[in-house]
Design a protein that fits this description.
535 residues, Rossmann fold, 2 domains, seven-stranded parallel sheet, 18 helices, 36% helix, binds glutamine
Amino acid sequence: MKLIFVSGGVISGLGKGITASSIGRLLASRGIRVSAIKIDPYINVDAGTMNPYEHGEVYVLDDGSETDLDLGNYERFMDLRLTGEHNITTGKVYRTVIENERRGDYLGKTVQIIPHITDEIKRRITTVARASGADAVIVELGGTVGDMESMPFLEAARQLSAELGREDVMFVHTTLVPIMGSVGEEKTKPTQHSVKELMSMGIRPDIIVGRCSREIDQQARAKIAMFCDLPEEAVVSSTDAATIYEVPLLLERQGVADLIIDRLRLRPMTSRRDMSEWESFVDGVMHPSSEVMIAVVGKYTSLADSYLSHLEALVHAGAALSCRAKAFFVDSDLLTSDNAAETLRDADGILVPGGFGHRGVDGMIAAAGYARENGVPFLGVCLGFQIATIEICRDVLGLASADSTESDPGTPDPVVCLMDEQRGVGGKGASMRLGAQEVELSEGSVARSLYGSAVVSERHRHRYEVNTAYAERLEAAGWRFTGRSDDGRRMEVGELQGHPYFVACQFHPEFGSRPLRPSPLHLGLVRAAMNRVRE
Ligand code: GLN
């Protein structure tokens, strides 16, 4: 078991997660089995209770864990299926240590950060790494070196490198190399300071990845190498890429995979780097032959990361169709049935993603109504599925006050209501219907032909569902439930008859989308949008 720690210095938002994911992709392409762990130093036990504005979308895994969005990057870049154990938080670590203490496991000792917290961190990392069966595990340390919250994790990493030995543990440090002044010189001082900080904790980086708006010149690399005590070829540039999927190729060109393989004495299955499929995917992303505009209508639109997996799923679908599916955000708080036609004029397709609470719901209903009446391709996901159902109830069945009990607990027509098993659930943490569940798709449906399979497994995250009492009436009106689960009693997919593409699902297909295996329902949306443009 080899561990590659990836830390970050200077500022946050340097693309540490993408660097970690890219390293994984490169090693995987040499036939090395890889896995990844994300450490989030916050006290929350998991990301499930966090607003998307905090850290972007909450990414859901097969096992129902609600995690940081970096796990989505790992799954997409390395084509993995991870479990919640791969996201370690301060909350999880302390919870275990406190439980141990209450049980009396520490035999009367004073429980301290060193060794008890650091031991638990090491136990978690090594247990997950071993269980993954990977040859190399990338461990991304969230936060920035110097943050108080990250200290115990850095100390645990240092101890692991001492215990497991130099050949089994290495450190990659990502920093910022700004270009300043009229002469446009690369500034190395922030990197020097941040490495000094790391070294003061006993960690010496083996590779420095400097984020810079252009390739860092030889002089600056030499300077960083000298001050930070590492060879010049171990200082590499991470330039602003046209697409995140290009980053593995940028790092490969600078020999990063070879550096890691040599340093850890990894045994690649092949000396060839098989990146050809990835390269043609990146080429598809960068050089599409057509373009469509997809409106993403939601209430968290001021932070693009809130909908990260949807944006990526659109990229994957677009690449498969040689089309750029360009997303633009529409704030559902500002959308009404009066301004929908104007606001959504440029949309070749409309996507209403998931969400919670009442705010912004009316605008989403307006978007669904506009798409339905004007034949605009539409995909509704989770809340988007519930929204489409409410809209059809109101406008087609004439139930003007139909609503979800999440929005209006007193509605006379609760067409979307709390799931039975959710009644009486008090806490908010990890308490929804979560994770991968099987869905049966009916014969002849759009969903079944897109998935090419009668039973699919997709991830869920919801408390409310379409009320079966309305199902028959809705189906008679053309809103067919072509995907169901739990012996047919739960509605999972809706398809509007006689519309070019009006599909919605209770699950989250965006979490399963991979560069070379796009989410079928996003693919359907983009294809329908392309057809609309051609007409
Ligand atoms: N708020 C809705 C529910 O809990 C939808 C959830 C979602 O979109 N993830 O069912």
